[in-house]
Amino acid sequence: PEQLPALEKHLSVCEQCQGVFDSKCSHYADISTAALWLRELGEKESRLGEQKVESQHATGSTGTNRERRMLQSEAIADIAKRMFDRSENPLLLGTLDEYDVVEPLGAGGMGIVFKGYDRELQRFVAIKLLSPSVSLIGSAKQRFVREAQSAASIVSPFVVPIHAVASHGEIPYLVMSYVPGINLQELIEESGALTPLQAVRIARQVALGLAAAHERGLIHRDIKPGNILIERNGQRAVLTDFGLAQAADDASLTHSGLLAGTP
C-alpha cells in the first residue's frame, strides 16, 4: 500500500508502462501483484543495461545499434513468454496455435514481430501481433486487421505476402512470409551510404511495390527505411508493415486531429 502513490505517479507519465499495465492488470488478482510484475520487468531491463555498460568498459566501445537491438529483443522476449502458450522445447519462446515462436524480430508502433515456424507446412514465417499497449483500442484492432486484408490483396514480388490472420485471446495477429535479412535502416547503419547502383535498384523495387499497392487503391502511408526489408543476398527489397495502409476513399478510421505515420 505504501508504494501505491509512487506507482500511480509513474503510471501517470510513462506511456510504455501504461500500455503494459493495462494489458496485464486483468490477469492479476490485485494491483500489488501487477506492480510486482512491472518491477520484475524493470529489474531485468536494468540488469541488461548494466551488462551492456560493463561490456563497453571492457572493450572500449560506446555500443552499437546491434547491441541496442539485442537489448530490445531481450525485453520483448521476456514479454513474449507471458503472452504465448508454454512449449516443452526450452529453446522456443512458446507456441501460438499451430506455430512455434522462435525469437523476436522487432517492434514498432502497432505491433511486435516474431520469427515462427509453421509446423503444418514446415516453413519459417514472420508473426506480427498487435502490440499489447494498443490491443484494447477498438480502432487499432480494426486498422491492424485491415493491414492483413490490404496487404493480402497485393500481388508483387516486392511486397511481403500475408498468409493468414487470426487472434490469440484478445490480441489479433497476422502471419507473413519470413524474409531472411535486415531492413534498409539497419543496412545503412551497419554499412554506411548506399552505392548509386544499390540506391537505384532499391528505389525501383520500392516503387514497383507501391505501384502494385496503388493498383489496388491502397496507400502505404509509412514508407521509411525500417519498413523496407533487404533480402540476405542484397538483391531484392520488399515492402512490409501496411499497418497504416488505407484505401484512398476510406477515412473511417482517421479523424480530424489524429496523426498517422512516423514523425
Radius of gyration: 20 Å
User: In what order do the strands lie side by side in the largest sheet?
Assistant: 1-2-3-4-6-5
Give the SSE string: HHHHEEEEHEEEHHEEEE
Strand content: 15-25%
> Could you name the ranges where pLDDT drops below 50 across 5 or more consecutive residues?
59-64, 247-252
Mean pLDDT metric: 75
- State the helical fraction: 40-55%
Kindly describe this structure.
The radius of gyration is 20 Å and the shape is globular. With 263 residues, it is α+β, with helices and mostly antiparallel strands. The relative contact order is 0.09. The longest helix has 29 residues, at 31-59. It has a six-stranded antiparallel beta sheet. The chain is built from seven helices and eleven strands.
List the topology elements:
Elements lengths: L3 H8 L3 H10 L6 H29 L5 H19 L10 E3 L2 E9 L3 E8 L4 E8 L7 H15 L9 E7 L2 E7 L3 E3 H8 L4 H20 L2 E2 L8 E4 L5 E3 L6 E2 L16
Antiparallel strand pairs: 1-2, 2-3, 3-4, 4-6, 5-6, 7-9, 8-11, 9-10
List keywords for this structure.
263 residues, alpha+beta, three-stranded antiparallel beta sheet, 11 strands, 41% helix
Summarize the structure.
The protein has 263 residues and is α+β, with helices and mostly antiparallel strands. The chain has 7 helices and 11 strands.
